[in-house]
Amino acid sequence: MVATTLVVFVGGTLWTVLYSFTSSKLLPKLSFVGFDQYERLWSSSRWLTSIQNLMIYGVLALVFTIAVGFLLAVLMDQKIRFEDTFRTIMLYPFALSFIVTGLVWQWILNPELGIQHIVRSMGWESFAFDPLNNPDVVLYGLLIAGLWQGTGFVMCLMLAGLRGIDEDIWKAARVDGIPRWKTYLFVVIPMMRPVFITTLVIVASGIIKLYDLVVAQTSGGPGTASQVPAMYVYAYMFQAQNLGQGFAASTMMLLSVLIVLIPWAYLEFGGKKHG
């Protein structure tokens, strides 16, 4: 098992990084060109646009997914009736692939079929809602679909964390007359720090790899308004047949994942050890 992991994952990663310093085109070849591929990458307007789009989408997705997921978990933690049913309904979108989610929301946001069409048919002829064809707001159209799929999963993680809080803490807060919202804000949330960190890492890693949802909804359009790094990698490796450039972009994505994982590993393991 360890040997398989080293060969497949570590070996594949090192192979990708190595060939990102070559001039490989259709086939990989050990013709080293130094940092030329990276210089070309960071001088590409398409790549810079992809990074900018991912940063905007990523920040909004992180904030809203975790915030909404936590609020839903708080509501579910009130021992409501039919909790299992509601939890299943909220988690169901996460069981779908991003392709299916993207197609579903492409139809919902389609001005000829979805929300705009329904509202206009009810008499509001001036109503306009076409985010996927507007380059200024297309990322928000993608964000809606991403939140719909990921929020339920985050809710389940947060709910598991809430159920792990000792009941005596709630009793003590009630005895001291502390409002429920203050108990959540100043007691419960700090106690759920490991859950928040783990959720942050899972969501952030998924955002960095964002591809299927964008392809299904917009194919990167209009123009390059919804391009993301994973689409750049695919375009250069399989369409432009420029493996060196694709490997360089892949390496930068790998670096982004490491930037997320290393602080998490330190907080989870190094912090406990020092503590």
UniProtKB/TrEMBL annotation:
Pfam families: BPD_transp_1. It is a multi-pass membrane protein. It comes from the Bacteria. The keyword Nucleotide-binding does not apply. CDD domains: TM_PBP2. Its main location: membrane. The chain crosses the membrane at residues 54-76, 88-108, 137-162, 183-208, 247-267. InterPro entries: ABC_transporter_permease (IPR051393), MetI-like (IPR000515), MetI-like_sf (IPR035906). Keywords: Cell membrane, Membrane, Transmembrane, Transmembrane helix, Transport. GO terms for cellular component: plasma membrane. GO terms for biological process: transmembrane transport. Residues 51-264 form the ABC transmembrane type-1 domain. The keyword Transport applies. It is found in: Cell membrane. PANTHER family: ABC TRANSPORTER PERMEASE PROTEIN. Belongs to the binding-protein-dependent transport system permease family. This is Sugar ABC transporter permease.
